[in-house]
Amino acid sequence: MDEYKIDDVARECGLTKRTIRYYEEIGVFPTPERSEGGIRLYTREDIEYLKKIVNAKEILGFSLQELVSYLSVSDAYKLHHQTYHDMTSRDHRRQQLTHMSEMLEEQLQMLRTKVEKMRLMQQELEQTQKRLDDFIRKFDEETDSLDS
Amino acid sequence: MDEYKIDDVARECGLTKRTIRYYEEIGVFPTPERSEGGIRLYTREDIEYLKKIVNAKEILGFSLQELVSYLSVSDAYKLHHQTYHDMTSRDHRRQQLTHMSEMLEEQLQMLRTKVEKMRLMQQELEQTQKRLDDFIRKFDEETDSLDS
DNA sequence: CATAAAATTAACGTTGACGTTAACGTTAGC
DNA sequence: GCTAACGTTAACGTCAACGTTAATTTTATG
Prior knowledge:
Chains A, B: Keywords: Coiled coil, DNA-binding. Two copies of one chain form a homodimer. By secondary structure, chain A is mostly helical.
């Protein structure tokens, strides 16, 4: 049963049908197979791909435009496997591979700096928390001494 | 010279004047003092505050609505220092402090889970990179053997 | 096979986050 | 004190990312 209709996909990915069609419309999600009557039929692979999109969007805060570049890596990787034994020259193939590697490195750099910045904010917040809790302790001690 | 005009602020924070007025309009940035003629005059403190907003927005990917809740902590902290010696009761004061502490803890939880998710994506990407680089190595060895 | 449930396209509506323009007042430098 | 540069409000414009509705077709089920 490797066939899912749009509502199944929507449920599983936490999106609305409209959103899925919209993603297809702007090209961040491929147009799937259709039934005789024109109904979209998705595969499990499609769903996993869409989940990656949602993840990248939510976690990385990517806009849909940025997602296109992010996904090009994944796309290329797929293409790479699919056309493994076709007639493209070794040079061209090698070029594709290095390009993928470069894109990956770029993505990783972005991620690393983002993680680093978030960790800095985290430390800052933890400092503030520590100071606040210290203050509350002092405040309570003061209150105690007033009570006694 | 603790007086800056909107253009100075815009330059230093990397925003447009319109954006700054907009932030003021929707309440994520306080309305500053005005000159006799109605010109906005900002302090260094204002600028640092705005920088925090920009940072939170960019790094955390917060919407301006979410920023309001994020900033309420900072606001409360400020208020706390300002009204340190006024007539508010100790109980009310204590309540404010614990509320701040709770908000902080919430923010920290969000940050920690976000950082964790990003690190997972990072590891995934690094795995992919590793596999890809291995593949390229094999590819090159194969090419070498074809050449020889 | 009838009919309700679910899918399709197409078009207009909405919300957030500003950009742009106009019309006008303020300030700084010569 | 004049003028250019910079400020102000107010209103309309825009773009992304969908939501909503309508009108129609397809599919599943008693």
